[in-house]
Design a protein that fits this description.
The complex is a heterodimer of chains A (446) and B (261).
Chain A lengths: L9 H12 L7 H16 L15 H5 L15 H8 L6 E6 L2 E2 L5 E2 L7 E4 H7 L1 H4 L13 H8 L5 E5 L9 E7 L6 E3 L2 E6 L4 E10 L5 E3 L2 E6 L4 E9 L5 E10 L4 E8 L4 E10 L5 E10 L4 E10 L5 E10 L4 E10 L7 E10 L5 E10 L5 E10 L2 H8 L5 H17 L5 H14 E2 L2 E2 L3
Parallel strand pairs in A: 1-6, 5-8, 6-9, 7-10, 8-11, 9-12, 10-13, 11-13, 12-14, 13-15, 14-16, 15-17, 16-18, 17-19, 18-20, 19-21, 20-22
Antiparallel strand pairs in A: 1-2, 1-3, 4-5, 23-24
Helix pairs in contact in A: 2-7, 8-9, 9-10
Chain B lengths: L1 E10 L2 E11 L4 E5 L6 H9 L4 E10 L2 E2 L5 H6 L2 E4 L6 E5 H15 L7 H14 L10 E2 L5 H15 L3 E5 L7 H14 L5 E5 L5 H4 L4 E6 L2 E6 L2 H9 L2 H11 L9
Parallel strand pairs in B: 3-10, 3-11, 6-9, 9-10
Antiparallel strand pairs in B: 1-2, 1-4, 4-5, 7-8, 11-12
Helix pairs in contact in B: 5-6
The chains are: A alpha/beta (446), B alpha/beta (261).
């Protein structure tokens, strides 16, 4: 069955279907927010490459592709064996699993968390305790400024909700797994995550996106993270969508005084991936660390946009993004550091380094400093280079084969980011993902 | 062990080696001396298989095999070792991992099993003593942030692990203070025996006080212009390269050709 998308773009058609399912829910303040967000999409459409922030990433194909909502009819249970390697059972007993955007209580596991900690499906919380999360929801990620945040907000329903009360330190990581699998027609999901971390609280969060099969689909997640005074969040995002998938995700972080946010973003899958991380350092002494690694080959396109807004004095930010590209892959890095007039004593370091393994790969790297204070220390730099021939020869001169020498050099390049993963078990998994992607000194289609 | 015949090689179209003949037998130490730019390091790299250096003429037979037909890794596996003048820094590659991978690559080639982690550590402790390095070194990235002396000692450590038949030391003495030089020379001397050979490439005579050569060859403008015993090195120490340069320039008789830089 095909719908005439000339008459009606897919997201409007999807919204009608979505609204019908909400029944009585269509009268709530939340739904008014959804409708306002939809209006924003309807009015402005998707960004074009004429817009500075989208200059190198063309999303017109997403607009024209006619993505459907996920089919409601019961889907075949996904085999646990297929999923085993993605469940991270050895890392943590706390996990929320979503299959094609829908919460799976069967695959999820929530044992051992203290009662006052919330870690559950956002949709459930919206239904049962909306008062807890409504003061935070959609307050950070501004749908008026970002088309895909607006799209996500229009369909806001399922996702992960985390609430850590003051002074609580959660030892084991909280793991959120989004699985996409063949669902017949090209489908779209809009995962929505909200993490609220209390004063002096600490938590480690792993967000993982995994795709099976070879069909096209579109994942459009938004995560909002609020760190109260002196809170610490370690946030890991691992994107392994399938090679036909589209992934456009936004992470919006708000930091209060003395809080510390550490992000590690790994972008490996998708034909087109875009990851935006926007952080606002909105209290003295706040600190954020953004580390990222992207690997792309074939015709993959990966775009990382980061914004660090130094709004208050004495905040530190450290950023290191590294990319490995092969074949005809293309990468974009845009890192903006914004230092507001009263953000004196800001200390910001940013670096983007790219390794090209073919003649045809392209990188656009765009570090941007906008500084309106005078007593600050900001450094930034971008590099694009090839594998160091001297290093490869050095290894070969010790008996190591050419292909293996290249693999070692590539791994070492990636290692400067993966070594920063503090969770040892996770570090091994991510390093395993990097290694499994290497074949004879190049990137393979795994 | 090694027989070089009429070897010509060029880099980016410029001929650097213009007909080298050299024969090295097991148990011998050969010093190759010469002014800067004479082609000493090029010779060392050609023997190790550096692809940027193109061999245009001549042959190199090593242990009865055509060395020039082998990949750099196969040369290493067959027992050829180059101690680099400028050892390469490889950030992110742990030294222990590097040494073990190299050792196992050579072992596999020779039909031996991989060395276990335990055996490796035992071996590493023993070999590191030879060049006065402590165990913390194993955890550091290969050559990253090493001092000049540490880098050179690391080269000799790798040599100790791989136990080559033919070790080529490329200006291993340059930039070393006397204490570091003694450590490095001691390491090399400990590894010498009647079955292996050393080619020591150097600009200065000093190294040869500690690694005593059987033969000294002077390389100039891509050719060996003079050969002799260890006394030749002392002669050069006293007189410098000028008289040899003059003699050679007369013989070669290339009018208008000024010394290579």
């Amino acid at each position: 069955m095909s719908v005439n998308i000339k008459e009606k773009v897919w997201y409007l058609a999807n919204f009608e279907a979505f609204e019908k399912k909400l029944n009585g829910g269509a009268q709530t303040p939340l739904h008014r927010l959804r409708k306002a967000a939809l209006q924003r999409v309807k009015k402005n459409g998707f960004p074009s490459i004429r817009e500075e922030e989208w200059r190198f990433t063309n999303v017109s194909s997403i607009e024209s592709m006619n993505f459907k909502p996920v089919d409601e009819k019961e889907q075949e249970e996904i085999g646990r064996n297929t999923l085993q390697e993605y469940l991270f059972e050895d890392l943590t007993p706390n996990r929320l699993v979503f299959v094609n955007g829908r919460f799976s209580s069967q695959l999820s596991s929530l044992s051992g968390l203290a009662q006052n900690i919330k870690f559950e499906n956002l949709a459930l919380e919206l239904k049962n305790n909306p008062d807890v999360l409504l003061p935070y929801l959609a307050k950070q990620a501004d749908y008026k400024k970002h088309a895909f945040t607006a799209l996500n907000t229009a369909f806001l329903s399922e996702g992960a909700f985390i609430y850590i009360p003051n002074n609580i330190i959660v030892d084991e990581p909280l793991y959120i797994l989004y699985i996409s699998r063949d669902g017949g027609e090209s489908f779209v999901t809009h995962p929505r995550n909200l993490y609220v971390v209390g004063s002096n609280a600490q938590v480690k969060i792993i967000e993982s996106y995994v795709g099976f099969g070879e069909e096209k689909y579109f994942t459009n997640p938004v995560s909002e993270i609020i760190l109260n005074e002196n809170a610490i969040v370690d946030h890991y995002k691992i994107q392994q969508e399938n090679k036909s998938a589209y992934h456009i995700g936004v992470t919006q972080v708000h930091l209060k005084k003395d809080s510390n946010y550490r992000s590690n973003s790994f972008s490996f899958g998708s034909v087109l991936a875009r990851n935006d991380i926007n952080t606002v350092l909105d209290g003295e002494g706040a600190e954020c660390t953004l580390n990222g690694l992207y690997m792309a080959n074939g015709k993959q396109h990966v775009d990382n946009h980061t914004l660090i807004d130094h709004a208050k004095p004495r905040c530190n930010s450290h950023e290191l993004y590294k990319g490995i590209l092969d074949d005809r892959a293309r990468a974009v890095f845009s890192g903006k550091i914004y230092v507001r007039p009263d953000a004196q004593k800001t200390d910001a370091i940013q670096s983007n380094q790219n390794l090209l393994l073919s003649e045809d790969a392209i990188v656009d790297t765009k570090p941007q400093l906008e500084i309106f204070a005078d007593d600050v220390r900001c450094t930034h730099g971008g590099t694009v280079g090839q594998l160091d021939d001297e290093g490869v020869f050095y290894l070969r001169s010790r008996g190591i084969s050419k292909h293996y020498a290249r693999n070692i050099m590539i791994q070492a390049f990636a290692g400067q980011v993966t070594h920063k993963i503090k969770l040892e078990g996770l570090r091994e998994k991510v390093e395993g993902l990097v290694f499994s992607r290497l074949r004879d000194g190049h990137l393979s289609d795994k | 062990m090694l027989e070089i015949k009429n070897l010509h090689a060029s880099v980016e179209g410029t001929e650097i080696l213009k007909g080298i003949d050299l024969k090295v037998n097991a148990g011998e130490v050969h010093a190759i001396m010469g002014p800067n730019g004479s082609g000493k390091s090029t010779l060392a790299h050609v023997l190790a298989g550096r692809e940027e250096y193109k061999v245009t003429k001549g042959s190199v037979i090593y242990e009865g095999k055509d060395l020039l037909a082998m990949s750099p890794e196969d040369r290493a596996r067959e027992g050829v070792f180059l101690a680099f003048q400028y050892p390469v820094e490889i950030p992110g590659v742990n030294s222990a991992y590097f040494l073990r991978t190299a050792l196992n690559a050579v072992r596999q080639y020779n039909g031996l099993d991989d060395i276990s982690a335990f055996e490796f550590l035992k071996l590493a402790r023993e070999k590191m003593k030879l060049v006065d390095m402590d165990e913390s070194f194993l955890k550091r990235s290969v050559n990253e942030g090493f001092s000049g002396g540490e880098k050179k000692r690391n080269e000799i450590l790798q040599m100790a692990f791989l136990e080559p038949k033919l070790a080529i030391l490329d200006e291993t003495d340059s930039g070393l203070d006397i204490d570091a030089l003694k450590i490095v020379a001691h390491g090399v001397n400990q590894l010498r025996n009647e079955n292996n050979a050393v080619i020591a490439v150097t600009h200065y005579q000093r190294l040869l006080n500690y690694i005593v050569p059987d033969y000294v060859h002077v390389l100039y403008k891509g050719r060996i212009v003079k050969s002799g015993g260890k006394e030749l090195a002392l002669e050069l120490e006293e007189q410098g390269y000028d008289s040899i340069k003059n003699d050679a320039d007369k013989k070669v008789n290339v009018p208008g050709l000024t010394g290579v830089k």
